[in-house]
Task: inverse folding
């Protein structure tokens, strides 16, 4: 049995060969009317088959990246502030981004986005995160570790660490620390000077514990206890290993969605989409009959093309993006409505069907162009000013306007001309309700 | 199809719009009413939680009260497991306290959604929203002036302002909360409505070329009548699409769908009944003045 991949290669090849043979042996010998009938059949079959394949068999929307609101995940905007030692500048911001990236990597997030925005903001996007609270805590905490004696002298800091890990003493989880050479020397000195006295472990200015030094420690090893769960200890180990953040970060915006809620949103908007598009399709057939059905064929080409372009440019599909897509279907048939109404008018003036169609399309084109460019101005502004989700909406809307102009004008025109030339309908004017 | 005298009956159309907009404005400025701004505009926190065991709104409230969050807006689903808490922005310690209090008093839960917006961001959003609308209008004025004429541009923008006012007003009356999506909806409405208006203007422009001797009122009436079927059909197809978003979309897109439904209705109305009659008024007045100047 051939594999699916082999089939994907062989089937199109066979189709192409069959088409060439058909063209050489049959099509060339046909009269003009019959040729048009053949082309019409081929167009209708391929549009329906293509739409079925790309929308139902192997839907393109499964190949489009999903935004965080659909896939579930964290989107936070962090804003940096000066600390006692460090000011917000390019160098410190870059260092902060590096530390965050390090932490995110250690959390094991696939395809994170960590980028600077403006002079003091960092956008972090983590798709598919399960425990949102945990991840948020790991991101923004400075994790500045110090060992301080009772006089307030700082002996060793997180910068002297070689590695942090988790371990267990008895039943309670601990964070084990091993110092680098410099740190080992400093820690030995600290324990020597403070023998039988408390040495406080301070994290971000908060005393975690203050054990009494019972012996001089020269091996460069220490541990922090006082954690209830392994996860808590693990989180601290991640932060200590990634280094302390040079700047104070605060969350100015947070939009995080669980994967279940995202899945729910997908199901709902998919349903809204199918219902909305079906309603538009039915309306067109009910109102414009055969031309309406042809417009519907063009509409399915439109939906496939729009999804393909979104997949091609690596856009992320978001909830507002889907809303934009559904809306654009309603607007996409507008061009056809304008054209059909125009053709009706032209027919009323006594023109033949073909010339009415030609002048209808020509007259309508200018209207469609002017109307759509003004709409594009609005969508463009939305793209430029909108952030995140709104931008996704602006992208689908703008692309939708551009692509629908192509499908509604070019594809519909080819279909209609072929139908008329195929002379399948004796009185073509009836089709237009004239 | 019977011809409708759109220009002659303008007093009714203008009057109807004025009543709707005025009513909306009254609600907009009425103390205690007005546009209900969501956290995107005011700053704040939304927590969307699913509890393992059913809880009640009052038990959630009494848990939050000792933390100074007794005034939060709390909603629970009928089965009592899904809870939405809307409250002010919180510090990290505060968040930890809230989590702990909820867990110890009401049992474990999963976080479905967190939305937190600080004041800085919400102020930026409001500023950007006005800026975006201003720039979109400017761009449209320039384009329409180039392709048509300045008076078309201005009357088209008046029609757009009409749609924005109607949508704001209806949302104030209904008391639906607006978020940043609403800004996107308003700009989309503006984009839709201008599209509609341009189709009518395009027909006026075309008729002007061949029918120079007729009165403007007749010519515009004819133009609107000629494009009327298109206006209605297009707004129907678009309404079918956004109606589906409103009825079947999830809770996050529902209000967005509603704004579009209202806006598209208003946009279709203003393109037919407001923009072109206004243009005729302006044009005829100018011609009268010109004649007076000559005389």
Result:
């Amino acid at each position: 049995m051939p594999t699916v991949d082999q089939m994907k290669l062989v089937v199109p090849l066979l189709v192409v060969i069959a088409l060439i043979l058909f063209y050489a042996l049959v099509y060339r010998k046909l009269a003009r009317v019959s040729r048009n009938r053949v082309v019409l059949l081929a167009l209708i079959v391929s549009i329906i088959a293509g739409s079925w394949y790309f929308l139902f068999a192997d839907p393109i929307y499964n190949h489009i990246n999903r935004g965080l609101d659909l896939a579930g995940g964290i989107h936070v905007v962090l804003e940096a502030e000066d600390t006692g030692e460090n000011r917000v500048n390019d160098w410190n911001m870059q260092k902060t981004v590096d530390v965050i990236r390090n932490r995110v990597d250690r959390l094991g997030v696939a395809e994170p986005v960590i980028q600077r925005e403006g002079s003091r903001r960092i956008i972090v996007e983590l798709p598919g995160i399960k425990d949102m609270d945990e991840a948020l805590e790991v991101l923004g905490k400075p994790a500045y570790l110090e060992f301080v004696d009772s006089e307030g002298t700082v002996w060793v800091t997180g910068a002297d660490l070689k590695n942090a890990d988790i371990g267990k003493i008895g039943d309670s989880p601990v964070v084990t620390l091993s110092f680098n050479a410099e740190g080992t020397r400093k820690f030995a000195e600290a324990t020597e000077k403070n023998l039988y006295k408390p040495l406080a472990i301070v994290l971000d200015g908060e005393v975690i514990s203050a054990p009494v030094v019972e012996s001089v420690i020269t091996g460069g090893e220490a541990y922090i206890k006082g954690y209830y769960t392994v996860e808590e200890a693990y989180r601290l180990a991640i932060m200590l290993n990634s280094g302390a953040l040079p700047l104070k970060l605060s969350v100015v915006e947070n939009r995080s969605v669980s994967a279940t809620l995202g899945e729910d949103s997908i199901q709902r908007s998919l349903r809204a989409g199918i219902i909305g598009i079906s309603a538009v399709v039915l309306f067109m057939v009910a109102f414009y009959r055969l031309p309406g059905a042809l417009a519907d064929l063009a509409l399915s080409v439109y939906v496939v093309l729009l999804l393909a372009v979104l997949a091609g440019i690596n856009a992320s599909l978001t909830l507002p993006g889907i809303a934009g897509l559904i809306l654009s279907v309603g607007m996409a048939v507008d061009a056809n409505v304008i054209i059909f109404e125009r053709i009706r008018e032209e027919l009323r003036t006594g023109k033949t069907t073909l010339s009415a169609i030609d002048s209808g399309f020509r007259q309508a084109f200018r209207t469609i162009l002017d109307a759509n460019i003004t709409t594009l101005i609005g969508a463009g502004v939305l793209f430029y000013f909108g952030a995140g989700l709104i931008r996704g909406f602006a992208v689908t809307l703008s692309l939708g306007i551009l692509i629908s102009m192509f499908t509604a004008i070019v594809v519909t025109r080819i279909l209609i001309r072929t139908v008329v030339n195929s002379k399948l309908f004796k009185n073509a004017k009836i089709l237009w309700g004239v | 199809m019977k011809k409708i005298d759109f220009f002659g009956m303008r007093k009714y159309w203008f009057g109807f719009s004025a009543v709707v907009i005025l009513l909306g404005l009254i609600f907009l400025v009425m103390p205690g009413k007005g546009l209900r701004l969501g956290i995107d505009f005011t700053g704040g926190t939304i927590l969307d939680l699913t509890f393992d065991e059913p809880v009640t709104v009052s038990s959630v409230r009494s848990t939050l009260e000792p933390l100074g969050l007794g005034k939060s807006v709390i909603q629970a689903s009928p089965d009592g497991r899904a809870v939405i808490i809307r409250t002010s922005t919180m510090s990290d310690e505060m968040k930890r306290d809230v989590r702990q209090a909820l867990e110890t008093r009401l049992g474990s839960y999963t976080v479905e959604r967190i939305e937190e917006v600080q004041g800085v961001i919400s102020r930026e959003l409001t500023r950007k929203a006005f800026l975006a609308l201003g720039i979109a209008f400017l761009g449209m004025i320039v384009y329409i002036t180039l392709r048509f004429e300045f008076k078309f541009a201005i009357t088209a923008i008046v029609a757009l302002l009409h749609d924005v006012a109607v949508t704001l007003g209806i949302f104030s009356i209904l008391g639906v909360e607006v978020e940043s999506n609403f800004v996107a909806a308003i700009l989309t409405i503006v984009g839709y409505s201008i599209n509609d208006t341009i189709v009518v203007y395009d027909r006026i422009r075309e008729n002007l070329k061949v029918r120079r001797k007729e009165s403007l009122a007749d010519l515009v009436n004819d133009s609107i009548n000629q494009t009327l079927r298109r206006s209605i059909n297009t707004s129907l197809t678009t309404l079918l699409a956004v109606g589906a978003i409103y009825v079947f979309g999830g809770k996050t897109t529902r209000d967005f769908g509603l704004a579009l439904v209202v806006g598209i209705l208003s946009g279709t109305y203003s393109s037919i009944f407001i923009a072109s009659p206004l243009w005729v008024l302006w044009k005829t007045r100018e011609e009268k003045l010109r004649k007076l100047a000559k005389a």
In short: Residues 259-312 of chain A form the longest helix (54 residues).
